[in-house]
Amino acid sequence: MSSVTIEELVAKLRCCNESQFESTEYIHDLLAAFPVNPESISRYLIWDNQHYTRNLIDKTPLYELLAICWEPGQASSVHNHHDQMCWMAAPIGRLCVQNYRLLREDMQAGTCDLEPSNVVEINPSSPTAVDPLAPVHKVYNPAEFAGRAVSLHVYSRPYDRCLVYSQEQHKCGEIHLNYTSEYGVPSRPAMAGSHSISN
């Protein structure tokens, strides 16, 4: 399958109307049909041995597109996307998405119960969409994959906060998110907002 540049993908996303971002199928099929050439995203990639990085590529009122860089063994915390739609593709390497069933949630008390459900692999030929009816998940780059990975995330609409969950501590809470870089320019020396309850 031939690939497109990141600029070509951005042009296609900017042509989408609001209704096409309201169900998972259209954007998923678009990402599957037009995989991105890894070389075209190189200027957006920032790596950090301590934490995955969140790099903004494009943003409109309707969606945002990020490149997230994962060293081997790095993972997000368990989180949701604040009722926004999410699609993921992996132009570089492979990643796993562990989905969860939320059994109980009490935001006022900051407590929850959840259990793992299925695991989905994303790779250059296999994007995925977060199920809006079961949106709690984590993304990770298994050490045994033995390589760096980059995921492209499309969120509709843009958001700057999410809920994070600890299965072990039965706790949940809201955190704010930051970009490591914006349009290829580092945002600031501090680490980007992480999916961590301790933040």
Radius of gyration: 16 Å
- The global form is globular
Low-confidence stretches: 190-199
Major beta sheet, strand line-up: 7-4-9-2-1-12-13
- Count of strand segments: 13
Major sheet, described briefly? 7 strands, mixed
- What fraction of residues sit in β-strands? 35-45%
Number of domains: 1
**On the 0-100 scale, what is the average pLDDT?**
93
Quick overview of this protein structure:
With 199 residues, the chain is mainly β. The chain has two helices and 13 strands; from the N terminus they run H-H-E-E-E-E-E-E-E-E-E-E-E-E-E.
Question: Would you give an account of this structure?
Answer:
With 199 residues, this protein is mainly beta. It has a single domain (6-186), classed as Jelly Rolls, CATH 2.60.120.10. The chain is 10% helix and 39% strand. It contains two helices and 13 strands, in the order ααβββββββββββββ. The protein has helices at 6-14, 24-33, and strands at residues 53-59, 64-70, 78-79, 85-92, 95-106, 111-122, 128-129, 137-140, 149-156, 161-166, 171-176, 181-182, 185-186. The protein has a seven-stranded mixed beta sheet with strand order 7-4-9-2-1-12-13, covered by helices on one side. The radius of gyration is 16 Å and the shape is globular.
Q: Which terms summarize this structure?
A:
disordered C terminus, mainly beta, 7-stranded mixed sheet, Jelly Rolls, single chain, 3-stranded antiparallel sheet, 199 residues
